[in-house]
Amino acid sequence: MKSSLVKRPDQAWLRAFLFTVFGAMVLLVSYFPLYYRHLGFSSTQIGYLYAIGPMISIFSNMFWSMASDRYGTIKKVLLVLLAGQMLLALCLAATSSFGMVLFIITCFYFFYYPIYPLADTMSISTAAKYGKNFTTIRVFGSLGYAFFAIVIGYILTSAGSSWAIWVAIGLALISLVIGFRLHDQSSGAPGKMNVSGILDILRSREMLWFFACVFLLAIGHRMNEAFLTISLQDLGADQGLIGWALLVSSISEIPMFFLLSLYGDRFRELPLLIIASLMYVLRFFLMGIVDTPVGMMAVQAMHSVTFGIFYVTSLRYLTRLVPSQFRATGMALFTIVWSSASGLLSGAFGGIIFEEAGRTAFYYTAMAFSLAAFAGLILKPLLVRSTDSVTADSPTEF
To answer: pTM for the full model?
Structure first.
């Protein structure tokens, strides 16, 4: 008997694709700040470089996701994005001035950020096609992140931070090759975008409340993401140890993904989101206290009960509120709030706080934003009534 992967090659290729593109994410999130420091940029300049991507992605996520919904294709859009990434990374490797790096990375981010909501949309559609759980596919992204966190860490320890760009080019090329083998998926029937339908969803008080809490929680998450590697380096960690720290966080979320896939539907979304936000408060409080790389690595294991719970539960909640024909656009809106708008604020002001006030004040600021999100989630039943009828579709199985 043929294995299920042979019978369903679209799942196998999609898992390989997620493994690679989420592996590439570790470069942008964790090793590019070290590359910028290698070029001689200050923490404030690094913060600006981190912030420009989320600002651009506010527009790029909507542009490419609406194009995907409009033309009924995800695969072709992904191929265009990967080709653009590779070409711009080649340009980035040829310059070292802050002005040119800022310009090129701005263009690069236009093709970089939309890949992840579109990949998640394809995963959701493929899982629904075979009656599978979304996390059984998405977990390969976490495995790729964990694998490349270690591999890239040791490569850059041996070769130097200057090779970060060439590793990014190689991963983009591999992802592009795998992308040609993907089976195309659509979040809905192709046709003219019904913008009024999206506006109706955004008029929902529950949706606006949800996005507001996501935004507050994401600020702290993105602050940690942008300056974790720099914090570790300042405490004396080399890039190999930094890779292990990233491995701890990415591996820790995998068991949580599986647990939520098996038992998550026994719990309502709101209590799970409240638990995740409270754990974020504790996580950033501890990050402000520890003063050794090993201590930071230990705290990073809380990624499982923070991001692991929050991400899966948020997608489950989002698919209940957004009709399936707007799935790609709904994911883009979530990504704009979770990554783009929050990344813009955390990068621009986080770098200033880190440079002027120090690491402890930096993490206590992140904790304050998480505490505000926790308060918003606790008060939700008093302030916002549920609007399950906002979508006529049944929720996607997670």
So the answer is: 0.72
